[in-house]
Amino acid sequence: MPFPKAFYRWRPHPWHGLEVGPDPPRVVNAYIEITPFDLVKYEIDKATGYLKVDRPQRTSSLPPTLYGIIPRTFCGERVGRLMPDASFGDRDPLDVCVLSERPIARAEVILKAKVVGGLPMLDGGEADDKILAVLEGDNLWGGVEDVAGLPRPLVDRLRHYFLTYKVLPGEPSHVSIGETYGRERAEEVVRAAVADYEHEYGS
């Protein structure tokens, strides 16, 4: 008996084997690596697609939202060109932060996320944008269309987390974050990351 058309005989690689999303760059898939409850930073292992332990969180900060990647994206030359002072992208999948009213306490889940804005993070001279999104159909956040519709304290909390999550007291920081940008610019970054992926890995 043949397998159903949508059936994966083996687990697909979350970065390379999943689709960008149902309606990119507006609605994308997000593969979640860490949750607001994680005291350890996990990230996708590029060779196997499984989550690996990157490091215990170095400070008391916890990620304010779900945090993961957009499949089939790559931060390369095109993403780097969109950020002043960036030499290139960070050569990783594009990061995404997703707001959800209901607590989602487990990682390695896939969800549909509506892009609303972003944080232009420069890390060691490389573009490391953090796309801001809301869970599609969410009862509380689903109606937000642009980052201007998010509470300012929540955006400030995300900014503070990314400015400090790698730094220990007394160590210099190599991270800076510019002004938050809205949906239109965020969609441009997603399109650039998809184009960078196709250039790097093929369509």
Structure description:
With 203 residues, the protein is α+β, with helices and mostly antiparallel strands. It is 18% helix and 28% strand. It is built from 3 helices and 12 strands. A 5-stranded mixed barrel has the order 1-4-6-10-7. Strands 5-9-8-11 form a 4-stranded mixed β-sheet. The chain has a two-stranded antiparallel sheet with strand order 2-3. A hairpin with a 6-residue loop joins strand 2 and strand 3 (51-56). The longest helix has 19 residues, at 183-201. The protein is globular and about 60 Å long.
What is the radius of gyration?
16 Å
Category from helices, strands and their pairing? alpha+beta
State the helical fraction: 10-25%
Arithmetic mean pLDDT: 93
Number of helices, counting only DSSP H or I runs of 4 residues or more? 3
Write the layout of secondary structure elements.
Elements: E1 27-34, E2 40-44, E3 51-56, E4 66-69, H1 77-81, E5 88-89, E6 95-99, E7 110-119, E8 121-123, E9 126-127, E10 130-135, H2 152-164, E11 175-177, E12 181-182, H3 183-201
Parallel strand pairs: 5-9, 6-10
Antiparallel strand pairs: 1-4, 1-7, 2-3, 4-6, 7-10, 7-12, 8-9, 8-11
Précis, in short:
With 203 residues, this protein is an alpha+beta fold. Helices cover 18% and strands 28% of the residues.
Provide the descriptors you would attach to this structure in a database record.
5-stranded mixed beta barrel; 18% helix
